[in-house]
Amino acid sequence: MHPEFEEPRPTGQTNGSVSQHYNDVSQRYDDKFDRYVTESVRELLDRAGDAIANRGGADRLTHADVLDVGTGTGVVVRRLAERHPLWTFTGVDISDGMLDVAKAHLPRHTFVLAGAENLPFPNESFDVIVTLSSFHFWSDSERGLAEIRRVLRPGGLLVLSDWCHDFWACKLCAWYLWLTPGYSKADWDIMTSARADGLLRSSGFEVQSTNIYQIDAHLFMLPWMPRWGMMTFIATKDV
């Protein structure tokens, strides 16, 4: 059974320009960014799939409530649901257009319009929380991590994977966004692995492992782009 929804808490802000952008590209997103989505999800599951399956413990979970933050079109939920068909999945995103695509692919599961900073769920609702390629778009990363910790059950697992400012390809992207009309510093914040690690620890998570790597993403439809930098953290709720 899906966790019950609460009225949105009056904290955190939806990033309007980001949500509008993804609404505009939602119907063609999976095709346009197929290479990046495929590679980033594959690498995420290669690095964290076993930890997700057993919530970081020794025994595989027969059932789990899983939340995907920044779910987009639901690709992470699709891949996890293929591996764990008896689990319950919920996805949140700030783009209703992206959520419409996710709902069409996954009618059995639940998708909610919400940002990381304002999760409309009771305390301790989920065993596992995953977020891929959304952390840099959170308007308040500390608030988002606090919300994730709030809705994660004791001993629960967080898998956070995002762009990594350790690599110069991501530095170029940050400069591009800074110079592009319509984006502001509040719209994106590509972090170094050290900064993300520090935020996780200061937010009450125990970091179990850190992976820093590159993928052949062909982001922006440009095959000559350098390999894209990623970081994936596996962390547990520090109780």
Short structural summary:
The chain is an alpha/beta fold and 239 residues long. The chain is 36% helix and 23% strand. The radius of gyration is 17 Å and the shape is globular.
Rg value: 17 Å
**Measured distance between first and last alpha carbons:** 25 Å
What is the number of E strands?
A: 7
Helix content: 25-40%
Q: Oligomeric state of the chains?
A: single chain
Number of helices: 8
What is the topology, as strand order, of the major beta sheet? 3-2-1-4-5-7-6
Q: Summarize model confidence as the mean pLDDT.
A: 84
Strand proportion, as a percent range, falls in 15-25%
Taken from the alpha-carbon principal axes, the silhouette is globular
How does the major sheet shape up?
7 strands, mixed
Could you name the key traits of this structure?
239 residues; alpha/beta; 7-stranded mixed sheet; 36% helix; 23% strand
Structure description:
The protein is an alpha/beta fold. Helix content is 36%, strand content 23%. It is built from eight helices and seven strands. The chain has helices at 16-25, 29-32, 34-54, 75-83, 96-105, 141-151, 168-179, 193-202, and strands spanning 65-69, 88-93, 110-113, 126-132, 152-163, 205-215, 228-237. A seven-stranded mixed β-sheet has the order 3-2-1-4-5-7-6, with helices on both faces. Helix 6 links the parallel strand 4 and strand 5 (152-163). The longest helix is centred in the N-terminal third of the chain and has 21 residues, at 34-54. The chain is globular. The two termini are 25 Å apart. Mean pLDDT is 84; it is low at 5-14.
